Amino acid sequence: MHVKYGIFSDVHGNLEALNEVMDSMTRHGVERRVCLGDIVGYGPFPNECVELIAEKSDIVVLGNHDSVAVGRESHDEWNNYTAQRSIEWTRNVLTPATVEFLRKLPYTASEKPLFFTHASPWNPPDWKYVSSLDDAVDTFSFFTEQIAFIGHTHWPIIVIMDNEQSFHVSESLSYTLRPGQRLLVNDGSVGQPRDRNTQASWCLCDTERMSVEIVRVPYDIDKTQAAMRKLGLAEFLITRLSEGR
Question: Could you tell me which of 49, 45, 46 has the C-alpha nearest to residue 35?
């Protein structure tokens, strides 16, 4: 089945960015929408983001912030004080419908030739970051599909495996699969990009061409920041949006 997929993750309660990404997917002719988790945490509109994703997405997997927010696991081991405070605020504002939706999400999903998870395919519940080429090389043993999509680092990247033996990072954020290759693709972040690009990020995948392309979308950052200030959220979380970090 040849399908245009729109893969996105790390929305983090940023409804302005999510709306723009959804519109961008429509303009690109996306037929199936896949959310790789971390819908909530950090941002001002967790319930609204979950509601929109539940309505418009075909596949949704669990992220670590989603899991902690609904009590599936503890945040006690998190070293980041700002993240802890953010998740406590989020937990207090979640509606019963949001909690029910997030509690049912799986760690992984597959629609061959594609695999989806939030963090490393190595062991999804461990939430391991794929933040180096060595990390990426290790992941290819833990999925059998031709292309795996992940989020978690908020940093878009495409890693190519050639003939099961050599690995390199794509020089551009678009790539068409060649015979004997497999890919690991990080789609970046919708709601809190950290690659010094303030625009929301998502990935277009065409299974007819076996191509992937990271798409960047501007959104009204000021509006999101104003909503965060009104709610008394941490200034660090507010300013980072306009710095892409």
Answer: 49
pLDDT digits (tens, 9 = 90+) for 146-167: 999 999 999 999 999 998 889 9
Residue 26 Cα distances to 19, 61, 85, 204, angstroms: 11, 21, 35, 11
Cβ(41)–Cβ(16) below 8 Å = no
> What is this structure's pTM?
0.96
CA distance 60 to 63: 9
Tokens describing residue 238: 């507010």
Q: What dihedral angle (degrees, nearest 10) is formed by the CA atoms of 85, 87, 92, 94? A: 160
Give strand ranges (E) for 30-146.
32-35, 59-60, 108-111, 114-117
